[in-house]
Amino acid sequence: MTDTASDFGYAHRHLLGIEGVKAEEISFLLDLSDGYVELNRGESKKSSLLRGRTIINLFFENSTRTRTSFELAGKRLGGDVINMSVAASSIKKGETLIDTAMTLNAMHPDVLVVRHPESGAVELLSEKVNCAVINAGDGSHEHPTQALLDAVTIRRRRGRLAGLRVAICGDITHSRVARSNIHLLKTMGAELRVIAPPTLLPAAISEMGVEVFFDMRRGLEDCDIVMMLRLQTERMQGSFVPSTREYFHFFGLDRDKLQAAKPDALVMHPGPMNRGVEIDSDLADDLHRSVIREQVEMGVAVRMACLDALTHGLRGNNRPPLETAAVRD
Length: 329
Ligand code: ASP
Description:
This protein is α/β, with parallel strands linked by helices and about 325 residues long. The chain is about 35% helix and about 15% strand. A five-stranded parallel sheet has the order 7-6-5-8-9. A four-stranded parallel sheet has the order 2-1-3-4.
């Protein structure tokens, strides 16, 4: 991660991952996001902060919510947003990636938001361009804005992150969401558990400072937050689970297994959900337990905060003050 001299709370040129981002920088981005949640809930959602700036969403992998929410975020800040989807089949490994990066760079964008199926591809691209780069998910490596929006959701509901017991459950091996969340929540002082079948746990997981469980009820005991992950079959080569039915039986979240967690434990999922595979459909829609829709709402605010933070250097000190007083639910 390249540092730039900045008096702003996030002092990096890019946002490529959560690993290596300091606790105070994370808090800064969460506070900034809180301010944007209020803007988004108001009547006029428009700001002129990014007027004259160009944001390119460059997606080499499918996305619905992440791409839409980056697009909305850029537009609500008054920027010009262009979406480019590159079909996975047309990717000729690094060559096309770098060619595309150089072509876009020549058009002088201010921010490139990039999603790519290969871990490390976004960082590689960031080394070739002059503008700020945001990683919108690279392979099974990182998805930093997802972890930030999860953290905003939790912090607004619980008032803190430190000391909370969080269980991340399911397909850890293929999940960039799990990795970014582990880095963020550990940095902010939460207690982390992962619950998965051994086939869906990476070998190096214990080096990440998490407690490992192979049984849902034991792992969920007294948890404040239950974060479910999608079974990412598109990243699997071969069979990792006997059948989706059996997977649901042992590792799918339903009301029965959830009883092991704290009575007010929050249920989360980054989406898209495989209903009836990793999560019971009714539970996912139960607004008393599930904050899945709120996560989507927070996504727009977090992406506005990230665009704001990464373009701060371009504005000098001409930034209108933003109301960042946290209003918690
Ligand atoms: N939307 C998230 C991601 O892009 C989670 C998922 O796809 O399961 O990683």
